[in-house]
Structure to design on (284 residues):
């Protein structure tokens, strides 16, 4: 009798356990300042509510896809690590499966400094004449990133133009007008004027505007709080509201606005936090 009960319970567990089983996976536990940590939740049953808490901020987790092969629901959260963050930080991942009780998992993230030397930027007076437009333009650019929509991207992101990395992400900058202290929020890719610029990933154009300081600017909303920015463009081929696919041509390289030569300033923001585009170039 007793043996029968044990057997029944074992059989029940064998079949029931995989059904309710969910897991959390991080792409890394060691990241450089200004990078991102990608968090994946996989579950045999849908997950109702989930969030990631990191450095006193809460980030939503987004549905990504259902995999018919593994019969698994996949969820993702791309969590930004601010520039100038250092040390060991706690990350808490919480989720509530459709059946069962909520689960909390704790991970520790080691943040390492980004090696970056200072560079003097000679703008030939452009900061004096055009710098006054920066504030209002930055407000417009920030406003274009308020919508948080379902995930449209997949990894890896595309490098939008070929060419030399003329200024890396996070580089400390000193301008010839004497302004100091801020760090490069994107990466500069030097390419000849007229080089076609590809959309780094699928998304909706959130802003396409001729700006005085940032030059011709495009912002794409990839969903899940991830936006990509393209600045100092020569020509813009897209309009606000249109959907672009990964690799679609959105315009050409230029040197418009406060720029010292033909290049694309390419930036990725996650919940408005500028992060290293280099962290988006691999599969996950
Ligand atoms: Zn730049």
């Amino acid at each position: 009798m007793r043996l029968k009960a044990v057997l029944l319970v074992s059989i029940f567990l064998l079949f029931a356990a995989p059904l309710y089983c969910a897991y959390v996976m991080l792409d890394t536990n060691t990241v450089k300042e200004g990078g991102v940590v990608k968090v994946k939740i996989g579950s045999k049953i849908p997950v109702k509510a989930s969030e990631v808490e990191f450095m006193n901020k809460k980030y939503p987790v987004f549905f990504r896809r259902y995999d018919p092969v593994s019969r698994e629901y996949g969820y993702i959260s791309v969590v930004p690590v601010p520039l100038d963050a250092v040390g060991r930080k706690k990350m808490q991942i919480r989720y509530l499966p459709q059946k069962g009780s909520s689960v909390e998992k704790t991970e520790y993230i080691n943040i390492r400094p980004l090696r970056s030397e200072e560079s003097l930027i000679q703008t030939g007076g452009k900061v004096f004449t055009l710098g006054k437009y920066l504030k209002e333009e930055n407000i417009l650019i920030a406003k274009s990133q308020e919508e948080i929509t379902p995930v449209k991207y997949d990894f890896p992101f595309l490098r939008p133009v070929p060419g030399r990395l003329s200024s890396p992400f996070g580089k400390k900058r000193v301008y010839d007008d004497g302004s100091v202290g801020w760090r490069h929020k994107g990466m500069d890719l030097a390419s000849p004027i007229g080089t076609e610029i590809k959309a780094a990933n699928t998304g909706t154009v959130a802003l396409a505007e001729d700006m005085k300081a940032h030059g011709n600017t495009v912002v794409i909303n990839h969903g899940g709080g991830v936006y990509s920015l393209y600045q100092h463009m020569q020509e813009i081929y897209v309009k606000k509201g249109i959907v672009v696919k990964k690799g679609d041509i959105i315009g050409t390289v230029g040197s418009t606005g406060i720029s010292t030569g033909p290049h694309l300033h390419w930036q990725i923001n996650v919940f408005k936090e500028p992060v290293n585009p280099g962290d988006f170039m691999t599969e996950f």
Helices lie at 2-20, 126-130, 134-143. The pocket of zinc ion is lined by residues 167, 184, 186, 188, 265 (CB under 6 Å). The chain is about 10% helix and 45% strand.
